[in-house]
Amino acid sequence: MNLGELSTDFLLPLLEATRQNDRNPEQVLAQYGFQEEQLQHPGQWLSIARFMRIGEALIDLTDNPGLGLEAGRLGGLTGAGLAGMAAITAPTLGDALETLTRFEPLYARNIRGSSQWHRDALQSHLCFYSIAPYNEYNRFVVDSILAGWVQLCEQLTGRSDLVEAMTIEFEAPHYVSHYTRELSCRIEFGQPQNAVILKEGAEQTRLLFASLPDHRRMVSLCQTQLESISHPLTISHKTARAIAACLPKPCTLEIIAEALKTPHWTLRRKLQEENTTFKEILEQTRKELAGSYLANTATAVSEVAYLTGFSSTEAFQRAFKRWTGLPPGEYRRQNQPVNN
């Protein structure tokens, strides 16, 4: 099971931030199979795992744990492609953010979830899904996304006073001073979700390049492109995707049926019609995710156990050996490519 992928354009702000730290990123790129001129060609993707490894290497190169924040400040719309063009021409900031999240699969996909735009009577906020557990080398992803969204609001409107706060799931890290240096909004750590919260009424702010006819044309192009990459899924595939997005939280038939907006007895019956059961799909999904984490990331075995919903590392190790015939560490040694 693929953990996810994103446009190679998302590397560009990281590379520029590295240069602004007086370091040359070319050797790191080469180490992971890229030449910088390759990144100028549109339509290229890289795996989430490789993106995180490149980010980890650049943080080590610069000795700067706040590199993600600096990349976010330099990023904004970078990477959003056609969806970004549709956002630029939207009538209001809220319309732009809704457009970016609706068409996110055109530039980024992750098994853990998708970004969400929420607007209600009390507040409007843009949420980035959880990638817990957090460590030294995946916090930069949250940093770059949220800081990029703050920069995006300013780029689209020409105003720097629209963001109320940024909330972050992980506790305040050792480089907390970088946040106050790079961002002017309130920062709250240890919160239930990763989000950028707008000030009251900010979503109604008109954009600098608003053009409703152009926006509608761009949205139509985005919709056509989205339909071209979307394929009808069996109920088994839908169930597996819902389980992957739900983990590491508890995954029961009832919980997944609710996520799929269907009664649990109907889900059970439809799975039986495809000659499978919920338990079999849960087991297979955990197995595939565990194999992907071990083969494609440096995630510790204990964290892979957590991410796949096991209550202990020992229980995960027993299950993984039953699945593959190998302990997790040996499976990683045999299957992890160099410089993935």
Count of alpha and pi helical runs: 16
> Approximately what portion of the residues adopt beta-strand conformation?
5-15%
Q: Could you name the CATH topology of the largest domain?
A: H-NOX domain
What distance lies between the first and last C-alpha atoms, to the nearest angstrom?
Answer: 16 Å
Number of domains: 2
What is the general shape? Answer: globular
Keywords: DNA-binding, Transcription, Transcription regulation
GO molecular function: DNA-binding transcription factor activity; transcription cis-regulatory region binding
InterPro entries: AraC-type_N (IPR032687), Homeodomain-like_sf (IPR009057), HTH_AraC (IPR018060), Tscrpt_reg_AraC-type_HTH (IPR020449)
GO cellular component, one term: cytosol
Task: Explain the overall architecture.
The chain is an alpha+beta fold. The protein folds into 2 domains: 4-228, Alpha-Beta Complex (H-NOX domain), CATH 3.90.1520; 235-335, Arc Repressor Mutant, subunit A (Orthogonal Bundle), CATH 1.10.10. It has 16 helices and 8 strands. The protein has a 5-stranded mixed β-sheet, covered by helices on one side. Helix 1 packs parallel to helix 3, helix 5 packs antiparallel against helix 9 (212-229) and helix 14 crosses helix 15. It is globular, with a radius of gyration of 21 Å.
